[in-house]
Amino acid sequence: MMVKLPEEIMVDILSRLPITSLCRFRCVSKPWLSLISDPYFIKTHLNRNTTNEKHQHDRLILLSEPCDFHSVDLKSFEFRDHFEALHLKFSPNQSPSDCMEIWGSFDGLLLMLDDFFDCFLLNPSTRQSRKLPKSSFSVNSEYCFDSYGFGYDSSRDDYKVVRISHHDYDYEVDCADNIVSVYNLSTDSWRRIGDSPFDHSRDDPSPGILLDGALHWVTTSVVGSNTSCVIASLDLADETFHSVPCPGSVDDSIVVQQLGVVGGCLCVFVPRHCGCDDVWVMKEYGVVDSWTKFTINYANFTWLKPLSLSSTCEFLFEASGNKFVLCNPLEKKSKELVVQGIPDYYDAETYMETLVSPNMPSIT
Predict the structure, then answer these.
(1) Within the chain, which residues score under 50 in pLDDT?
(2) Per-residue pLDDT tens for 139-150?
(3) What is the CA angle 86-322-131, rounded to 5?
(4) Per-residue pLDDT tens for 159-181?
(5) Are residues 17 and 111 in the same domain?
(6) Whole-structure pTM value
(7) 16 lies in a domain?
(8) Residues 128, 17: one domain?
(9) Are 83 and 76 in contact (CB under 8 A)?
(10) Is 358 within the bounds of a domain?
(11) Nearest residue to 280 via CA among 315, 247, 320
(12) Same domain, 176 and 232
């Protein structure tokens, strides 16, 4: 005779299982499907398997044309030289067609844009996606550009997409500066907040980097005739802008190329154009004295994007030419990692496997 376990025991057991198993178990029965799809269970599983922000980056997603996805496990990359990419298949009604860019990642959800500048949220683990409504606050001009960011507001248990519209100063257009709008998943709507006090106009707009409940961008600040590089942050709870101190050794003549998160810490990438670059890691968020410099000898590799940091202080970078590079700054060594089965051209981002649905209501 089969004994029916109490639901709280079932939740405790199932919430310890990996995502791949839970996705299969949804087909066992309608009660299991209902349980595993329940927002409370999804939140329980997420909290149990996420102890800190380092776990937000244990997998790599590769997006190629036409909206083709490959996934790579990064949990033990410091122990291997070869990887195998897993091809992810989507049902036709859940595949976000025409998406070519990834602009953010958190709790297993990816923010993506298609060729028509429509925003999508997608969970590559559960193969669920959601097309967001268009924002009525964007700037309509061929010389205006948009930067995006995606994150989570823990004070309201809500996921938010941030859009910053700005224009190219090389052209005289009737266009407001740095209009900021926010999309709330809980309400499925956009609203405008206060404009950014920083200059977000760049030749290549970059995604907002999420850390410690705030999104971060590389911007500039103009005071009189002085222009300096500034790390701007937007607190997702109170939706106000602040600045994060740059490394003390980075003066106004050095340009921070990009931001990243490695090992749960904010990092900045400063090119030196001498066969090596500097990666500064802020080991304690907001504390200027905690910035630590690592010099990366990249040899023949160019355009390094920081992806991950191992327990042995080895950096994993995405490099130009569809390459992945593992750098050890202490030993001043770097090597290329071979990833089998990846596409020729792709947009790469780190993520974690969760059950969080882009259509899931918040749990308060």
Answers:
(1) 1, 52-54, 171-175, 364
(2) 655 667 788 999
(3) 60
(4) 999 999 876 555 444 445 678 99
(5) no
(6) 0.87
(7) yes
(8) no
(9) no
(10) no
(11) 247
(12) yes
